[in-house]
Write a structure and sequence with these properties.
Layout lengths: L5 E6 L2 H9 L4 E4 L12 H14 L2 E5 L11 H16 L4 E4 L10 H10 L4 E4 L9 H10 L4 E4 L10 H11 L4 E5 L7 H6 L4 E4 L2 E7 L11 E7 L1 H10 L3
Parallel strand pairs: 1-2, 1-8, 2-3, 3-4, 4-5, 5-6, 6-7, 7-8
Antiparallel strand pairs: 9-10
Helix pairs in contact: 1-2, 3-4, 5-6
Length: about 240
Amino acid sequence: MTRTPAIEIAVQDPAGVRIAGAVGAARVELAQALPLGGLTPSPATIELAVEAARSAGVEVHVLIRPRAGGFHYDADEIAVTERDVRRAIEAGADGVVIGALDADGALDLAAMARLRDAAEGASVTLHRAIDVTADPVATLRAARDLALRRVLTSGGASAAIEGVETLRALVAEAAGSIEIMAGSGVDAASAATLAAAGVDALHFSAKRTVHEHGGVRMGSASDGVGGYEVTDLEIARGIVAAVSV
């Protein structure tokens, strides 16, 4: 019998936190700039999300990522990340989501230990930096040795459903000693198959895009057709329902 995995929803604001609570999620990963893979949210966003979570009945785990474009950071970026970890916990977050790789593309053990210690005993999740390492199973062992709580992984693929065999291998290696959370492209069509792989949790954003047409470029990635993403209640309900039958 397939065990029902915990649900984590990636959100960007207090409204997303409330939706996560409405569908019975265990926690949220709070971030900004999800189209960039997620970046550290502002202090005010963290504070308001934590306030919303108190009534929503969910945990808030804050993504701490100083920039887009990979996971190998210089000394200044690690220092920023460490301070952001401390401030997220001070603001009431239940945990943080982090990841740093060394110049060879392996887990940066020294940086990860420093960031773990900055969390002062709060839950620490290794994010999808694991998916760009050469050997996700070996990276999982390193995360376990660092006493991290869980890893968020797609099994080394662009979408979790494409990495399901690696996810099964990660579950077997973890053997309950560290949580395996499947994420990336999780939807109602793939959720049941991923749950059957034995993962401890499913992670998804359940987002939709709100479009605005300004006609003026606002940055190098802008074409004048603006938009932003919000958490969608019905999409979230559909994914949860797919693993609750």
